[in-house]
C-alpha cells in the first residue's frame, strides 16, 4: 500500500502540481484549501503525511499543523511554502512540523524531503 | 545622518511646483499643452541612474546651479519629442542625416531649456530665501546618462545620491520631457538633516542598506520566476523613490496589467503589487500550465499567476525578515487585472490615511530578449518602515537567507 498523503494549499495550481509529483508513488487521499479543512480532512483520512502550505485564508498552515500534531503527536507534516523566513521556520518547528520545502521546488527536492520524514 | 521626512517632502513639493512652472512655460512657448506626470526624489547609485536612463538617445539642455542651491540639472527630450517641439518652435528648422538639429533648432531648444529651468528653480530660491544662480544653457545630443552634465554622477560612484526627476507629458501628443536635478550632496544633506531627538527622522545610511536588501529581494523574486517557469529573468531596474502619496498611482505605466496585490504585516508592513503586462502573463501561464486554457487565462492560469505572486512576494520580503530577525506575514494574493494606475490607487488611498508621502521601491524584472516584463511595487507604511530602519543592524544586512538546515 502506498503511503497516504493529504495536500493542503489554497492554490489550485500548486495542488495540481503536487498531485502530479506525488501520485506515482503515493495515494493522494484528499486536498484541502485552508487550515480548517486540513484539520477536518486529517481526522477523516488519518494520512501518513501532510504537505502543508503556510499562507492560506481562514486559517494558516502553522496553526493547522499545531492542531494536527496536538491531537496526533505521530503526525508527519512537511511545510511546503514560499515563505523562507527563519522565524516562520522556528514557528513551524514549534508547531510540530517535520520538514520544510520552499517553493518553487523541483520533484527531486520534494521526494527527498518526504524520504527524510517518512522513511 | 538622519533625514527629516518633512523637509524631504517640502523639497519634493518644491520640485513638483517647479516642474509645473516649467511645463507651463513649455505650453506657453509652443502651444502644446503639457502637464507634470510625477515628481519623485530617488536615492540612487551611479549604476541605478545608468539603468534608469538606459541607452535612450536624448536631446538635452544642461544647466549648473549655484548660490542657495548648488548642483546640476538637465532638461531632456527623447529625439521624437524634441523634433515635435522644434517643429512648433522653429518652423523650417531641420535635422541632418544623423538626426542632429541645425543651429537655429539648437538655439530654440536651448532657450526653452533656459526658460523652463528658470521656472523650475524660482520656487526653490523663494523658499530658501537666497538667489539660485544658473549657468548658461548647454545644448547636447547624447545617449543615456551622458545627457547629464559632466561630473554630475561623480559622487554616485561611491555612494547613493539624491536625484529629483519630473516627467512632463503632452495632453494630446506623444511628447515627453524630463527634468533631472542632482543637488550637490553635502549641501543638500545639510538641508535635510534632522536633529537627533527628531521623532520623524529616517536614518539615511540604513535606508541605503535597506534599498540594497530590497534590490537583492527583487533578484530573489526574479530567480523564483525563473525556477517556476523555466524563463530566464533578471532585474533590470530597482530603485527607491520618495513620492507624494497621491502620485503613487502615476508611477505605473499607462498599461493594462494582470497580477497580484498583497498586504504584508509586521515590521515593515505595507503593500506589494506584482504586475505583468498582458502578453507576459500569457507567457507565464503557457510556461506553467500544460493544458489548453479558456481565454484569457482560465481559472488554472489565474491560479498560476496568484501562486507566482505568492512565491515572488516571499522572495522579496523574506530577506527583510531574516535580516531584521522578525517575521513578516502577508495576506493571500489578490488577483488584479486593470490599468496600473487603477491597481495602485486603492493602495495609495489606504496608506494616504496616515501618511503624506511614500517610500516607493519599484523593480522591473525582464528577460534578456524583452518578451517578458514584470513590475514590482513595494510601498511600506512609513511608520513601520521607520521602525524597521531603527531596528536594522547594518552588520546583519547580508543575513538574508534562513538557516533551514539547522532547524530541520
UniProtKB/TrEMBL annotation, chain A:
Residue numbers carrying 4-aspartylphosphate: 53
Stored SUPFAM superfamilies: CheY-like
Keywords: Phosphoprotein
Domain Response regulatory, first and last residues per copy: 4-118
Domain of life: Archaea
Name of the protein in its database record: Chemotaxis protein CheY
Organism: Haloplanus ruber
Highest classification ranks of the organism: Archaea, Methanobacteriati, Methanobacteriota, Stenosarchaea group, Halobacteria
From TrEMBL, chain B:
InterPro entries for this protein: CheC, CheC-like_sf, CheX-like_dom, CheZ_family_phosphatases
Keyword Membrane: no
Keywords: Chemotaxis, Hydrolase
Short name of one Pfam family: CheC
GO biological process, one term: chemotaxis
Domain (CheC-like protein) ranges: 300-336
Annotated ranges, domain Chemotaxis phosphatase CheX-like: 60-147
GO MF terms held by the record: hydrolase activity
PANTHER family listed in its UniProt record: PROTEIN PHOSPHATASE CHEZ
Full protein name: Chemotaxis protein CheC
